[in-house]
Amino acid sequence: MKFDTPAGMNPIDRLTVVGKPTPRIDGPLKVSGGAPYAYEHHDVPGKPAYGYVLGAAVAKGTIRSIDTARAQRAPGVLAVVTHRNAGKLGKGKMNTAKLLAGPDVQHYHQAVAVVVAETFEQARCAAGMIDIDYARSDGAFDLVAAKAGAKEQGGSDAPTAVGDFEGAFASSPVQLDQNYTTPDQSHAMMEPMATIAAWDGDKLTVWTSNQMVNWGLKDLAATLQVPIENVRLISPYIGGGFGGKLFLRSDALMASLGARAAKRPVKVALQRPLMANNATHRPSTIQRIRLGCGKDGKIAAIGHESWSGDLEGGGLEVAVQQTKLLYAGANRMTAMRLAVLDLPEANAMRAPGEAPGLMALEIAMDEMAEKLGMDPVAFRVLNDTQVDPEKPERPFSQRNLVRCLQDGAERFGWSRRKAPGQVRDGRWLVGMGVAAAFRNNLNMKSGARVRLNGQGTVTVETDMTDIGTGTYTIMAQTAAEMLGVPLAKVVVKLGDSSFPVSAGSGGQWGANSSTAGLYAACVKLREAIVEKLGFGPGEALFEGGQVHVGNRSADIARAAKSGEIVAEDSIEFGDLGKKFQQSTFGAHFVEAAVDRYTGEARVRRMLAVCAAGRILNPTSARSQVIGAMTMGVGGALMEELAVDKRFGFFVNHDLAGYEVPVHADIPHQEVIFIDEADDKVSPMKAKGVGELGLCGVGAAVANAIYNATGVRVRDYPITLDKYLDRLGEVA
Amino acid sequence: MRPFTYERATSAQDAAAKAAAMPGARFIAGGTNLLDLMKLEIETPGHLIDVNGLGMDQIVETPEGGLRIGALVRNTDLAADRRVRKDYGVLTRALVAGASGQLRNKATTAGNLLQRTRCPYFYDVNMPCNKRKPGSGCGAIGGFSRQLGVIGTSEACIATHPSDMAVAMRVLDASVETMRPDGTTRAIPIAEFHKLPGQTPQTETALEKGELIISVALPKPTGGTHIYRKVRDRASYAFALVSVAAVIGRDGKGAVALGGVAPKPWRVEEADALLSKGAQAVSDRLFADATPREDNAFKIMLAKRTIASVIAEAKG
Q1: Same fold, A2-35+443-577 and A38-138+187-277
Q2: Average pLDDT over residues A238-250
Q3: How many CB pairs (< 8 A) connect A and B?
């Protein structure tokens, strides 16, 4: 199905199942241990051996020699695979660095070997017996030092300019010109990278944890240099990914190589201390924002520049993305520059671009509002735009930012906000902050197959993944709505490369794209059912397990009495995304308190108001948003991969050193969804929400801390060492 | 983790004697720290002597009016003990500020005293660390040292002692009671129990080879307001940036010990005497010889401000 004109009325609009708060259908499996994660599958042919990955001890250099003899003789060891015996390997299209080092080492903890043994403990012990002599070479590990040599990129990453930014900024009566920094961040998902690999002759099956089954499949085949049809990738349950599992990673490759060498199925889970440096991360940014306003508060000039780093051949953090679209202003510029660094591979993490971009931009907006003497909500409302400010002929498909801000302000009690440093609660200084949330809506081609059997059971099959987001449930809701059957009559099978290729889970495109693909398959199945029943032509109504056309009715199951009916289709998106800017919007409100003695900052209340198209399942959408808000608190107050600029690695590479919020950090969270349906995005009229919830949270926290203390911090995370000397004297 | 042999000790003296006789032997009780270190091959004992079966899990009153805490009393049980809560509140507060409920259920009193630094360079076997591998250098000096020590450190090591419990015990003037391999016992004042690194950061305590902690004695209660303030980046389950254990009387006199700043719980008796003069005076004395690094210099100001908070709280 091609989606190239706005959606009219369709069966989804009945909203008898879609749009209703629905507990996740896979919940009982998850709480009873019945949902196998990558490391836990038992339907593997033969008892798996255990693989243990050894990471490189240097950040950059060459392996001069590698002696595995002692490890190979260790008890229980079945195989040791290094670059010397792995065979010829390619490199996946989505990978910047190789997944197996040697002889060159590209980053710290890049995999140098996998040891396969009968038990995990034997493999781990033997890994410690591999002797490697490295020739360490100098590398670039400091973004600040590398900034001057950073280069502009082309295509969609190229600089943009509209009007006369420099002139308009220079002549603006009120100006802001500030630098902001965001740190390297780790996905730090609960389930580490994990894979079981099994070969049957030249056929390979991997049970893994991957957000994008088809990307993983292609890159695994490309890396192993085997035909893609010889590889099957299964990823039905994923214990968090946040973008870290968008790509083939070393667990899948090393398990496959280990299994080939040991002639046994092999399971590999990356040990936690490898996760920060072996896997990808969100790169740090240095950002410069310039705003020029008239005395009336209207933005005349808006400029945003960003610097980030990555390995040679890698990409930018697109931190200026939202600034192209969020606020009005006739004179604009953006620019991004990429430095080559020898730190581990930088790549996407939840809301790449907007998450760090808004951490900076939305502090800048708060600072400008103060310079103007305006309320920060009113300042944002004043500078709203209903068209793409770089291309005013492009309207937004739907844009309710103003309502998010205004409804949120009312709900949160924003009018009680005082000037900075005015509110005390015992030893706590208390303040409120706001930030706009913005994340582009992306659509991806997505396919599904749907089957109807003689019992009236509908089975959905697609390689779509559920990364904890609730995909199983919204797919079941979609099929139930389309076919007029109860939720209990729908079986959803996901995450298997033998199923039709889907959008996968990333960029908050999964929910809308994959349900739209299923919608397309269901339209085909409806046609086949009506034809089988001999009811056509005429408008069909699927309801209550029955099919009605005109005055004729039948149980849906009857259509499949003589055999299963199968339909498959995909949704492909035309140029509506070009004609209309499709984005999601929100507003975050935060109340924070800072201990006036110690500077400890704690969030007290949070509210998010989201405008993100039709909300398919308010229950799981709310979970997505509160999870994202939690991640935003982490980004604001504690998350940072600390770089050792001498040795070139992330030092705090475990969950004791890399702090994310614990329960005690997270207070009452409230989420409100504006009732929307966006007919320009898909037949589902839905958009993504999983990343929107993160966008702007960090700045809302930062602005609340400023309002509490009168102290502005522009470098994340906002830890007390950065402002303790600016809090008032206490002794 | 390297292969190791394992046995259960039959008595405290049996444990001590075996540990003295076996090269590379270590005691194991809760295992909440040792097992992690073994998995990462930071510790590679060839033999483990399990002391869990030795009793030593009671808290009893001493003839002097204090408490004797068995070495194997779990952190959870110690924190919850009615007598501890009533008379040694700073100890309960320190205990519950540490780790997580699950860890406190396993971790023992002796093991808590003996836990090792969380310095990230100690934890990464690819990095130099004089404590882990004497003579290899200190990776933390010149590296990421935000969590590390500002006083009592040396050019060989700037690690901090991670315990909360020990900081409270230091302010309470506890003593560590041990049994040597020959069956003799001794009491080591907590002030002398942990060693400063000097040129031998691998030597962390006054314990001799094989010597086993059997209990910790608390002196008679002194009254006063008991406070434990632990400052950290997140609200729970994190090691202290700075912590302050304080016992302060109605007259404003008392004692303070600090965690998160030094290789041992940091207390200077001359600083205690300055409590009535305020936080600045106390802090100046506590940190008179401080050698902060760029990343952790904030700890000195943070300590002063935390002491100020504690003094204000004690005044009520």
Answers
A1: yes
A2: 98
A3: 111
* Predicted pLDDT at A537: 82
Mean pLDDT of chain A: 97
Please state the separation of Cα A549 from the chain's center in Å: 43
Extract the residue ranges of chain B whose pLDDT is less than 50.
Answer: none
The percent of residues above 70 in pLDDT, for chain A, comes to: 100
Q: Identify the CA nearest to A253 among candidates A223, A217, A273, A276.
A: A223
- Closest-CA residue of B relative to A662 is B236
Rounded mean pLDDT of A373-398? 98
Residue B233 near chain A (CB below 8 Å)? yes
Mean pLDDT of A263-288: 98
Rg, C-alpha atoms of chain A: 27
H/E element, A543: strand A540-543
* Cα(B314)–Cα(B194) distance, integer angstroms: 28
Domain layout of chain A by residue ranges: 2-35+443-577, 38-138+187-277, 372-441+582-729
Report the residue of B37, B116, B124, B127 to disrupt the A interface, i.e. the one with the largest count of A CBs within 10 Å: B124
Q: Which of B85, B80, B87, B76 is nearest to B109 (CA)?
A: B76
Can A691 be counted among the known catalytic residues?
A: yes
**Chain A CB contacts of B41 below 8 Å:** 128
CB-based contact A724 B305, cutoff 8 Å? yes
Reported as a single tens digit per residue, the pLDDT across A128-140 is 999 999 999 999 9
Residues from chain A contacting residue B312 (CB–CB below 8 Å): 427, 597, 730
Nearest-angstrom CA–CA distance, A374 and A370: 6
CB A703 within 8 A of CB A620: no
User: With a cut of 0.90, is the ipTM above it?
Assistant: yes
Inspect the interface and report whether the beta carbons of B302 and A725 lie closer than 8 Å: no
Residues of A in contact with B144 (CB under 8 A): 642-644, 651-652
**Is the domain defined by A38-138+187-277 classed in CATH 3.30.365.10?**
yes
DSSP notation for A50-112: EEEEEEPSSSSEEEEEEE-HHHHHSTTEEEEEETTTS------TT-SS-SS--SEE-STT-EE
| Active-site entry in A317, A461, A640, A691 | A691
The radius of gyration computed from the CA coordinates of chain B, to the nearest angstrom, equals 19
pLDDT per residue as tens digits for the range A204-236? 999 999 999 999 999 999 999 999 999 999 999
Residue A426: name the closest of A291, A597, A549, A639 by CA. A597
Is 3.30.365.10 the CATH number for A2-35+443-577?
yes
Buried b (16+ CB within 10 A) or exposed e, B34-52: beebbebebbebebbbebb
Tell me whether residues B146 and A724 touch, CB distance under 8 A: no
**Other beta carbons within 10 Å of A548:** 17
Is pLDDT at A536 greater than 90 in this prediction?
Answer: no
Contact A209, A268 (CB under 8 A): no
- CB proximity B294 to A under 8 Å: no
Alpha-carbon gap: A696 to the closest alpha carbon of chain B (Å)? 20
Chain A residues whose beta carbon lies within 8 Å of the beta carbon of residue B234:
637-638, 659, 661-662, 664-665
Distance CA(B91)–CA(A585), nearest Å, equals 49
pLDDT at A731: 66
CA distances in angstroms from A272 to A58, A187, A189, A622, listed in the order given: 18, 12, 10, 29
Region A372-441+582-729: CATH code:
3.30.365.10
B261 closest CA partner among B245, B279, B281, B237? B245
The verdict on a CB contact (< 8 Å) between B234 and A638 is yes
Distance between CA A662 and CA A630 in Å, rounded? 9
Q: Give the span between the Cα atoms of A435 and A635, in whole angstroms.
A: 14
Q: Do A651 and B41 touch (CB under 8 A)?
A: no
